[in-house]
Amino acid sequence: MPETPNKVGHFEVDLPPEKQVLALFAAKWTLGALRALVEAKVPDVLARGPRTAAEIGAETGTRADTLYRLLRAVAAAGILTEGADGRFALTTASTGLVSGAPDGIRDMFLFASDPMLWRPYENVAHSLRTGRPSFEEAFGMSFYEYTKANPAGGAVLDRAMQQNQYPATDVIFERFDFGRFGRIADVGGGRGQFLAEILRRHPHCTGVLADQPQTVADAKATFEDEDVAGRVTIVPTDFFVEVPGGCDAYFIKHTLHNWDDDKAELILRRIREAIGDDRDARLLIVDQLLRGPGEWDIGKLIDVEALAVLGGRERGLDEWNRIAGAAGFAIANEPVPGNIALLEYRPV
Ligand SMILES: C[S@@+](CC[C@H](N)C(=O)[O-])C[C@H]1O[C@@H](n2cnc3c(N)ncnc32)[C@H](O)[C@@H]1O
Question: Where is the O-methyltransferase dimerisation domain (predicted)?
Answer without folding.
Answer: 33-98
